[in-house]
Amino acid sequence: MPHVKTIQRPHVRLPPPRSVDTGLDWGAAGWAGLAAGAAFVLIQTFASLVFGEGGSTAAVRRLASVALGEGVMSPDAPFPALVYFAAAIVHIPLSLIYARILAALIHRMATARALALGALFGAGLYFVNYYAVSGLFPWFVSARGPAALVSHLAFGLLAAGIYKRLTRPQPDF
Question: Looking at the domain assignment, is residue 86 inside a domain?
């Protein structure tokens, strides 16, 4: 039998596929939650002083009271490091969870719409925290007001803006 030569095509090396939007960026959502959560505490502390709705420790005491009880809310109560620690243990996971929920809602939105939804989301958190959750923590009722609303709006806006900024497509080099 005669030897038949076959022609083989050389191996073609294809360029790697372009990056494709694979979904929610959990890391960006986490960073957005941490940054917006930190800003929330600072804004609520400042807004409470501006609006005359509590002392400089009221926001931290309120967060800590979820874990430690109503006793830490009294301005006469001591303010040890435990109060800060309890506030962080309550606030950081909530900020991460809320920011990730928001990120799932705004992931594919244009930035302007995402910011608007972020503000609405923050307003929704205000009503959940100060109207629904106040059934479990009745001392939250006294904290309803502009300072709490402003800080929740800021949380939503910041979380949305930071998430959108961190997830902008990067140029291919």
Answer: yes
